[in-house]
Amino acid sequence: MTNRHAYALAAASHGWHVFPLTPNAKTPLRGFTAWEKHATTDHALIARCWGANPFNIGIACGPSRLVVVDLDRPKPGAVPPEPFDEPGVTDGADALALLCERAGQPLPFDTFTVRTRNGGTHLYFTAPTGSALGNTAGRLGWLIDTRANGGYVVGPGSHVSTPGETGEYEVTNAIAPAELPPWLAARLTDKPSVRVTNTAPGGDQVTRYAWRALHSETERLFSAGPGTRNNTLNQAAFALGQLIANGLLPRHLVESALQEAAETIGLPAHEAATTIRSGLTAGVRQPRRDAR
């Protein structure tokens, strides 16, 4: 039995639905575009799939009734924006701790936990009964994303290698997942509020419009069904490219947000990057005239 075979079986024993990811990568194996539908807990099927193959492990959050809070590490030179620009806040874990402090809530770290390949953290929670939580990017705060219905996470035991960044996904707290704290569920259900500084042409009103557009297009991509995702990504890139042309959003931020969302829903990284560049370039050539 291979090491990843054992990890895939362990995940299935928790009732978590798994599917194969490309070896050394975070994207679904070619042919698994409907990964949420094909994800399984069948031990015999898992044995045939992983028994002799070094596939990484994807865990489909929706069928597994999981909400995973992804606490990331910042890219070089990144600094926390308001309201997380406080002493001691250096990454997503610190941002979540600050969020808990301000909400008067206990830290939610006592749950099944995985260390990601770049030193980030995945906190696994059971989804609230009857909830329809989806994926979010930054809704809770700086470097805090969530994966639920329509999303997946790279499971423990996986190895990911990209230029300049290689590592394992390792379990650091093997207890059963806790229930998602109700106050976090409420914040994930509420429409996001956007706080920005007055840096874009036209003042705060235009800036808020642009940042809401970024959140809206990202979450629309999270909701796209199989067979429509690349087209939805292209449409999102075009729409946001029009705002970039007006100086309302920085291109690097849009590219990063769309790339992360695209990979989260299973689009191959190279394909997604090509689509994003094409859509942004087309949008920049046709600036939006009603950006206010």
- Tally of individual helices: 10
Run of helices and strands: HEHHEHEHEEEEEEEEEHHHHH
List the domain count as a whole number.
Answer: 3
Q: Largest beta sheet, briefly? A: 7 strands, mixed
Radius of gyration: 19 Å
Structural class per helix/strand content? Answer: alpha+beta
Mean pLDDT: 86
The helix fraction, in percent, is 25-40%
- What fraction of residues sit in β-strands? 15-25%
- Please give the alpha-carbon distance between the first and last residues: 59 Å
The best one-word shape is: globular
Unreliable segments of 5+ consecutive residues? 192-206
Overall number of strands: 12
Structure in words:
With 292 residues, the protein is an alpha+beta fold. It folds into 3 domains: 3-62; 67-150 and 161-189, no CATH class; 204-284, no CATH class. The protein has helices at 3-13, 35-38, 43-50, 61-64, 92-103, 182-189, 204-222, 229-245, 251-264, 269-284; strands spanning 17-21, 56-60, 66-71, 113-115, 121-126, 136-141, 144-147, 152-154, 159-162, 165-168, 170-173, 178-179. Strands 3, 4, 5, 6, 7, 11 and 12 form a 7-stranded mixed sheet that branches. It has a 3-stranded antiparallel sheet with strand order 1-2-8. A hairpin with a 2-residue loop joins β6 (136-141) and β7. α8 (229-245) runs antiparallel to α9 (251-264), α8 (229-245) packs parallel to α10 and α9 runs antiparallel to α10. The N and C termini lie far apart (59 Å). Mean pLDDT is 86; it is low at 192-206.
State the gist of this model:
By secondary structure, the chain is of the alpha+beta class.
